[in-house]
Amino acid sequence: MNQANTIQGRLITFKNWQRMAEQQTGKSALRQIREILALRKMGGRCGLSDYYWYKLYDAAYLNGRGVQDFLGWRLQAQVSLALNPRHVVLPAWDKIVFMTLADSVGLPVVPTAATFKACARLPGIFGKHLRTRDEAAEFLRDPCVYPLFGKPAYSQQGYGSAYIDRYEPALDRLVLLDGGSISVEEFLKRLDTTVDYRYHRPECGYLFQRPLRLAEPIESLTGWKAICGARVICLNGPEGSMPLRAIWKIAVPPNHVDNFSLGKYGNLLADIDPSSGSISRVIGGLWPETHLLGEHPVSGNPFTGFRLPDWSAVINYCQMIGQMIPMMRIQHIDFAFSDSGPRVLELNDIGSTELAQLHGHGLLTESACRFIKRFGNADTYSWIKGL
User: Fold this and answer.
1) In sequence order, what DSSP letters do the residues of 8-62 get, joined into one string?
2) How would CATH label the architecture of 15-109+213-387?
3) What is d(CA 199, CA 293) in angstroms, rounded to the nearest whole number?
4) One matching Pfam family, short form (predicted)?
5) Mean pLDDT to the nearest integer, 149-162
6) Residue 234 in contact with residue 246, Cβ under 8 Å?
7) Closest CA to 123 of 96, 160, 89
8) Contact 291, 197 (CB under 8 A)
9) Separation of alpha carbons 92 and 80, rounded Å
């Protein structure tokens, strides 16, 4: 029964997408199905979901070579697995490892007040070393340390993270940015117990970082103090690290993180011109259910003409990270824009290719295909030969 309901639900979703695509372009259902079937023969192996999510049904929306440039979600992990040998990607999974390397070469990382990890020593950049839950409890019950942004050293999609605004001694609770709260004892559980077995590894530690103050232009635009990070996808070869795509993730209230996660959090995505840092095409979800936004939905400020500050520094930091980990051929790097300049948040190995293709730009450009054929493991991932 559950399986039948799932199949029925998917059919309803598909029919809704089909109907909306026809309203937007005039394409009949039959023509859409023919185009979806034709996609499967292309190198990116796009399917039904990709066709609608990326608005591949609308040629006028697409850039470059059109549908030929798009990578299907089924190949998302395989691109990184083909380009990045497993023995070089630890810094992309463990934030403590990455921050140690980044700080050693002069990259600006986020200031850390304290770090929980059951080990003998940590570098000084990790602030106060909390080795036990008792030490962490004492730290969290100190009203003077707040506000803090807490996040696991090993986690994805914001699992286990929290923006803690203050401590309420009378209730022994931590008050969060969105107005909710959690008891200290309950919060301590995430230090040594996973909150999601797919994405969170508590044994790698937990970081308590000083919340960054947004760069003034961004704070004025959004009216919300949660960090709005940029994701830059770089191809890293002997000639240096070059940005392939760049996306700005815009957090909206009550979210304390900017994760997009296929639109389920309600945050926004803006297209970034990698050469200038100018933004365009701001959306709030997946096609065909989303639409372009001309202004911020909360502040009402226009997006037109907005340029991210200190963009040249971001590109320089991408090149430094590429030099630091030269055998990691594709790098998904997150940056925050603070009032003291850009800060490197983290490096990702298997990044979300969906968010990078929602603005009409596919990842499989001609130059990207040449790069993948040059450095990708085509013996194991035979689809590379068809690019």
Assistant:
1) HHHHHHHHHHHHHHHHHH---HHHHHHHHHHHTTSTT---HHHHHHTTTT-GGG-
2) 2-Layer Sandwich (3.30)
3) 31
4) ATPgrasp_ST
5) 87
6) no
7) 96
8) no
9) 11
Band (226; pLDDT cuts 50, 70, 90): confident
Q: Which tokens go with 318? A: 């991408």
Inter-residue contact 186 to 165 (CB < 8 Å): no
Q: Higher confidence at residue 48 or residue 159?
A: 48
pTM reported for the whole predicted model: 0.93
Question: What are the structure tokens assigned to 355, written together?
Answer: 């968010």
- Which two three-digit tokens encode residue 187? 């919060």
38 — phi, psi (to 5°)? -70, -30
Domain residue extents for the chain: 15-109+213-387, 111-209
Cα(335)–Cα(346) distance, rounded to whole angstroms? 7
pLDDT band for 205, please (50, 70, 90 cuts).
Answer: very high
Task: Return d(Cα 360, Cα 253) in angstroms, integer.
Answer: 27
Q: Which residue has the tokens 């209730």?
A: 171
User: What token pair was written down for 26?
Assistant: 């005039």
